[in-house]
């Protein structure tokens, strides 16, 4: 499982994307070879971030989609999930948890 770094800020996003993209492509090839349907990304260590984190996650999701895979983001901090909800992209990153939240409301 790939891991996000502890910090994702706009000033470092382009460099982080280059590294993440390479890792995603390699991981996607392994997942497809194993007949998997989803690529897992661990966000548990992420604690310092701004909206650039959402941009990276959305780019990762698009890349996975082009590879025929679904991105699963695990361990995301509640503040990141809330930021995604405020920006209206939570359902794109966490479709199951967004549906569960709607059903609970």
Record keyword descriptors for this entry.
105 residues; alpha/beta; three-stranded parallel beta sheet; two-stranded parallel ribbon; 5 helices; globular
Draw up the topology in text.
Elements: E1 2-3, E2 7-8, H1 13-33, E3 38-42, E4 48-49, H2 52-66, E5 70-74, H3 78-87, H4 90-93, H5 95-104
Helix pairs in contact: 1-2
Largest sheet: 3 strands, parallel
Strand content: 15-25%
Gyration radius (Cα, Å) is: 13 Å
CATH superfamily membership: STAS domain
CATH topology: Transcription Regulator spoIIAA
Helix content: 55-70%
Structural class comes to: alpha/beta
Low-confidence stretches: none
Question: Overview of this structure, please?
Answer:
- The protein is α/β, with parallel strands linked by helices and 105 residues long.
- Helix content is 57%, strand content 15%.
- The strands form 2 sheets. Strands 1-3-5 form a 3-stranded parallel sheet. A two-stranded parallel sheet has the order 2-4.
- It has a single domain (2-104), classed as Transcription Regulator spoIIAA.
- The protein has helices at residues 13-33, 52-66, 78-87, 90-93, 95-104; strands spanning 2-3, 7-8, 38-42, 48-49, 70-74.
- The protein contains 5 helices and 5 strands, in the order ββαββαβααα.
- 23% of the residues are buried.
- The radius of gyration is 13 Å and the shape is globular.
- The termini are far apart.
């Amino acid at each position: 499982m790939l891991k996000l770094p502890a910090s994702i800020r706009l000033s470092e996003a382009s460099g982080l994307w280059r590294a993440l993209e390479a890792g995603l492509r390699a991981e996607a090839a392994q997942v497809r070879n194993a007949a998997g349907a989803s690529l897992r990304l661990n966000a548990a260590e992420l604690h310092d971030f701004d909206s650039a984190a959402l941009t990276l996650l959305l780019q990762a999701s698009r890349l996975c989609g082009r590879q025929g895979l679904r991105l699963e983001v695990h361990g995301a901090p509640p503040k990141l999930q809330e930021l995604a909800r405020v920006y209206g992209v939570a359902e794109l990153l966490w479709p199951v948890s967004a549906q569960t939240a709607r059903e609970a409301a």
